[in-house]
Every structure is written in C-alpha cells, then in structure tokens.
Amino acid sequence: MARRKSKNDAALICIALLIGIPAFIVIKISDAIGAPALIIGVLALLTAVVAYFVRKRANRLAYLRAKYGDETIVQNIMHRKFWPGQTIRKPLFRRIYIGRISWWAIV
Questions:
Q1: Between the CA of residue 33 and those of 6, 19, 20, 30, 102, what are the distances in Å?
Q2: Alpha-carbon gap, residue 16 to 91, rounded angstroms
Q3: CB 65 within 8 A of CB 71
Q4: Residues 104, 93 contacting (CB under 8 angstroms)
Q5: Beta bridge partners of 95
Q6: Among positive and negative, which fits the CA dihedral 25, 28, 34, 35?
Q7: CB under 8 Å to 45, separation ≥6 — which residues?
Q8: List of residues 6+ apart from 72 with CB closer than 8 A
Q9: Long-range Cβ contacts of 41-46 (<8 Å, 24+ apart)
Q10: Residue 107: what pLDDT?
Q11: CA-CA distances (angstroms) from residue 105 to 88, 95, 97?
C-alpha cells in the first residue's frame, strides 16, 4: 500500500524546488558564459537596482522640497513621522461598509 504524502513532505518538496531550480539555472548560465561574466552581470544588475532607488528617493525629496519648502516637514514626511499642525488630507471618495457590502461614498 502506498504511503500518503503529508503537508510536511509537500512543503519540503516546494522548498527544494525553490532552491534547486534557481541554483540549476545559475550553474548552467555560469557554464555557458563563465563565472567572471556572471559575477560582472550580477554586480551590474545590483548597481542598476541601487541607482534606481537612489534616483527615486532624490526625485521624491525634490518634489517634497518644492511643495513644502520647509526642510523639517520634508524630513518628517520622509521618516513617516507626525508633527503638530499636520493637516489630514482626506480622499474625495471613501469606501464604507454596510453589512457585507462595500460602497463608495463622497466624504
């Protein structure tokens, strides 16, 4: 009689696949183009990702500085802090729930 697989066995198989398939792909790419080219490619990709996030943050800072003009307010927004005198910006429409039904209402 065949043994039934438990949830733990299925989870172990999924983890093995999540680790094994990317490792297999990296090994095959390394064999095809060589390890130095693979390392240079990964470093170039990481550099591009870091540059994207740095540029995104710089654009956000420039936008907030142009909008508010006060550096302390800009830093509070960037650090997600609240401060005295902060206004609440409500959206025009808000989702309200009546029972199990959700409605969009003008606030």
A1: 41, 22, 20, 6, 55
A2: 46
A3: yes
A4: yes
A5: 104
A6: positive
A7: none
A8: 83
A9: none
A10: 46
A11: 18, 6, 10
Q: In angstroms, rounded to a whole number, what is the distance separating the alpha carbons of residues 83 and 76?
A: 8
Task: Give tens-digit pLDDT for 55-80.
Answer: 999 999 999 899 888 898 888 888 87
Going from N- to C-terminal start, the domains of the chain cover: 7-106
Cα angle for residues 38, 41, 44 (degrees, 5° grid): 150
Q: Which tokens in the block code for residue 34?
A: 């060589």
Mean pLDDT of 4-19: 81
Which amino acid makes up residue 101? I
One-letter identity of residue 93: F
Tokens at residue 82, please? 């609240």
| CB contact at 8 A, 78 and 64 | yes
